[in-house]
Amino acid sequence: MSADAFFQLDRIVHEKGRMAIMSSLAATSQLSFKELRDLLKMTDGNLSVHLRTLQEAGYLGVTKSFVDRKPLTTCALTTVGRSAFVKYIEILGLIVRQHQP
Q1: How far is CA 92 from the centre of its chain?
Q2: What is the pLDDT of residues 11-67, one digit of tens each?
Q3: Which one is the CATH code of 4-94: 3.30.2060.10, 3.40.190.170, 1.10.10.10, 3.30.1360.10?
Q4: Domain coordinates of the chain in residue numbers?
Q5: What pTM, to 2 d.p., does this model score?
Q6: CB of 36 within 8 A of CB of 24?
Q7: What is the 3-state secondary structure (H, E, C) of the chain?
């Protein structure tokens, strides 16, 4: 078994909160801040920090708008983010396969 695959894991995606966010967004075109917060049972502050990290990495697009005069923040994976997530899952699969008899 080679440890090389472990070192290929994207540290930005690997953190459990960010992996949960990316997994949720990979399954849909976009989710609102509130939907993500409620789905993942995160605090507003915790979710905001993770979203900012993903956005700064170019993995996430954030759109702010108003609906019925109420602010609405929506999040979606970018093309770069989807590619990073797919690569991350592929590396996890490789790690799992390496540990099978």
Answers
A1: 15
A2: 999 999 999 999 999 999 999 999 999 999 999 999 999 999 999 999 999 999 999
A3: 1.10.10.10
A4: 4-94
A5: 0.89
A6: yes
A7: CCCHHHHHCCHHHHCHHHHHHHHHHHCCCCEEHHHHHHHHCCCHHHHHHHHHHHHHCCCEEEEEEEECCEEEEEEEECHHHHHHHHHHHHHHHHHHHHCCC
